[in-house]
Design brief:
Subcellular location: Cell membrane
Helix content: over 70%
GO molecular function: electron transfer activity; heme binding; metal ion binding
Keywords: Cell membrane, Electron transport, Heme, Iron, Membrane, Metal-binding, Transmembrane, Transmembrane helix, Transport
Protein name: Cytochrome b
Order of helices and strands: HHHHHH
Number of domains: 1
GO cellular component, one term: plasma membrane
Structural class: mainly alpha
Bound molecules: protoporphyrin IX containing FE
């Protein structure tokens, strides 16, 4: 971890944040297609063409998230992240740190459990699927917190994830 805190997120960190966020939303919205495809194959039925396309996209997007997360973790260790706004109460800083940490855990665990379920051990699919509600709850809290900062506190936190201002 970088010892001194930078004053901003770098352009690369911002780009990775939004790219990964878009891919995660895609995975959550269309993830059921790969489950449908697997079920059809297991029952010896033909796989729907759209499900087949989305199932392949699920695997590619999942591995893309894993590769991008490795780059993101590397940047976080080298560049660091800006400190929480000065007026932020200690409990809110703690919740923010826990939420960001959980995001990192989920963003590595989801592609890894998905790959294990797909290539090695179909039973791991249950653990993989359980990550869907975890992601949804975390994203809801995260987006509400971002909107709270933007609309109520107006402390510029949202801007830090839009462009690298000094
Ligand atoms: C949907 C998937 C999303 C994921 C997985 C995600 C994940 C994260 C993570 C892990 C961080 C911590 C920064 C880091 O360590 O790289 C972060 C920061 C941030 N995110 Fe998201 N995010 C998502 C969506 C969003 C959305 C939709 C918004 C806006 C409405 C948003 C706004 C922000 C802001 C403003 C920060 C900076 C917080 C700060 O300054 O400390 N994120 N996000
Ligand atoms: C961050 C990356 C990923 C996310 C967010 C994600 C998310 C999801 C979601 C939401 C579902 C549907 C769950 C349901 O039907 O309720 C699913 C199913 C599935 N995913 Fe992923 N996934 C990711 C990466 C991967 C990867 C890399 C693979 C394979 C190489 C994979 C393989 C599967 C399989 C096989 C299923 C069906 C599981 C079953 O039916 O038991 N996923 N995923």
């Amino acid at each position: 971890m970088s010892t001194s805190s930078p004053s901003n997120y770098s352009l690369a960190q911002i780009t990775l944040h939004w790219l990964i966020a878009a891919l995660v939303v895609f995975q959550l919205v269309f993830g059921e297609s790969i489950a449908h495809a697997e079920r059809a194959l297991a029952r010896g039925r033909a796989v729907d063409a759209i499900d087949l396309f989305l199932a392949n996209a699920h695997i590619w997007a999942g591995f893309a998230i894993l590769a991008l997360m490795i780059a993101r973790l590397g940047l976080r260790i080298r560049h660091g992240v800006p400190p929480a706004p000065e007026k932020e109460p200690a409990y809110a800083v703690l919740v923010m740190k826990a939420a960001h940490f959980l995001f990192y855990v989920l963003l590595f665990a989801a592609p890894i459990t998905g790959a294990i379920a797909y290539y090695l051990l179909p039973e791991a699919g249950e653990i993989h699927e359980a990550m869907k509600p975890a992601f949804i709850v975390l994203i809801a809290i995260h987006v509400l917190a971002a909107l709270w900062h933007q609309v109520i506190l107006r402390d510029g936190v949202m801007k830090r994830m839009i462009r690298p201002i000094p």
